[in-house]
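Hi support team,

I've been running sequence recovery on a batch of backbones for a student project. Most finish fine, but this one hangs at about 90% for roughly twenty minutes before it completes. I'm not sure whether the input is malformed or the queue is just slow. I've pasted the structure tokens below so you can try to reproduce it. Let me know if you need the job ID as well.

Thanks,
M.K.
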């Protein structure tokens, strides 16, 4: 039996898991799920009901995207992207992204559901929290943890991509040239392309973003 990944193509958490699994060359089966109709076997394995979830042949279940990334890189890490020596630096970025930045991203993306502020106000908050620090970092080094890629680039890029896509014209003109270049370079990789390949028999998941 191969590891089985429950995934949703456009979910940024699932994307980061697929990127790491792909980079590590892990052979696996992918089940594309519909978030509105999650399969009962997924909910049995992981009652919290989010994707991605990875079921290992041993029966172990990994139900956090970062755990799936770290598991993948423990299987194979051909270019040394895990960098545990830099965890004190990288894990706070992950927490910032998955917590407050993701929340602001959702508000910026769906301002009609969050009327306490306007869309430009949500965006400005997200910029101060994340885009400005990311730009500062990427103006210094080509990748988030230095001169070479790391898991942290993979972990954050689906979220930056989603942020950029909310108002692509705005992002193109915004004062984040290093962040734009970093994002564009990752989106152009064969790794990203492979991670976004449409799963077979998953026409229902077709869509943009
Ligand atoms: N902390 C989780 C978050 C995963 C998550 O929130 N995934 C979303 C999709 S992007 C989800 O499955 N939401 C449940 C739903 O929409 O029903 C992780 O890192 O894996």
């Amino acid at each position: 039996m191969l590891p089985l990944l429950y995934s949703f193509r456009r979910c940024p958490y699932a994307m980061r898991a697929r990127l790491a699994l792909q980079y590590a060359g892990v052979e696996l089966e992918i089940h594309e799920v519909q978030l509105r109709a999650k399969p009962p076997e997924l909910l049995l394995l992981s009652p919290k009901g989010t994707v991605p979830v990875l079921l290992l042949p041993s029966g172990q279940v990994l139900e956090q995207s970062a755990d799936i990334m770290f598991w993948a890189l423990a299987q194979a890490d051909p270019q040394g992207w895990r960098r545990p020596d830099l965890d004190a630096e990288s894990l706070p970025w992950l927490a910032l992204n998955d917590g407050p930045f993701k929340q602001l991203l959702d508000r910026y993306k769906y301002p009609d559901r969050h009327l306490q502020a306007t869309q430009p106000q949500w965006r400005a908050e997200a910029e101060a929290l994340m885009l400005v620090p990311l730009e500062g970092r990427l103006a210094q080094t080509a990748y988030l943890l230095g001169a070479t890629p790391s898991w942290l680039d993979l972990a954050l890029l689906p979220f930056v991509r989603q942020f950029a896509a909310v108002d692509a014209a705005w992002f193109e003109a915004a004062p984040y040239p290093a962040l734009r270049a970093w994002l564009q370079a990752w989106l152009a990789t064969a790794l990203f392309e492979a991670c976004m390949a449409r799963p077979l028999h998953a026409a229902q998941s077709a869509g943009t973003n």
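--
Follow-up from support: It reproduced on our side and the slowdown came from queue contention, not your input. The mean pLDDT is 95. No action needed from you.
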